[in-house]
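DM from R.C. (forwarded with permission)

"hey, sorry to bug you on a friday — could you get me a structure for this? deadline for the figure draft is monday and I only need the backbone to look sensible"
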Amino acid sequence: MLTDISLGQYYPGNSFIHKLDPRTKILSSLVYIIAVFLAAESISYAAVIGFLFVVIAFSRLPFVLVLKSIKPLWIIILLTLWIHVFTGQGEVLWSWKYLIITKDGLAMGIKMSLRLILLLMISSILTFTTSPIVLTDGIEAILKPFKRIGVPAHELAMMMTIALRFIPTLLEETDRIMKAQTARGADFASGNIVRRAKNMLPILVPLFISAFRRADELAVAMEARCYRGGEGRTRMHELAYQQRDMMAAASMAGLIVLMIILKWGGFLCAI
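My reply, with the result:
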């Protein structure tokens, strides 16, 4: 069901990853994404996958919970694999009428799908181990230098965090609406894809009404608490880098160096 989707949820804990500064986790996630795109050979992918498993172990998150983060985009992952498998060039492995699977296409499809899975999993680890309030502070601190050119750092951070926080809420609301309409005779399981899509249309109206109502309630609650944005705002816990953040930064730097060596090592040695 939709409630099984774990995207945007926070999993409380006291692990090494949970205790990291939010700025460290956000920047480390960006560095990991760069490392994933630098991966080209099998040994490179083995390195980034191994690093991800180490992060999951240090975060003490249930592995099944992290795997659930793939569920919302499994159709896109399969579509990516299908496009590359059947449109690639090179040695033909299998063919039937207009369908042709090539060796290069299969390899590229697996690599692209694997990249999407790794990006989803590392992003989910970030949200699982960082509470919405702390995540807002981290994003705001990273965007703070851009205030000089007029970027509303706090407002952007708040909007992104609230949007992320409302994903599980909207999924629960969608599941509730679907169960209510199923009890009234609606059918969302039978028929082809087009028919199923048409059957989903009646869900949108109550879902949008519920979303606007929740947004209005949140705005009223924030206004009642005299919320005034980032200027002059105090915090119970100020962000501060500690030794564990330096250790995390060093490990990410080591990962990037390893990816560069694996990708351009031969070229650098030739120079």
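R.C.: lifesaver. The mean pLDDT is 83.
me: no worries. The chain has two domains: 1-130+241-271, 152-238.
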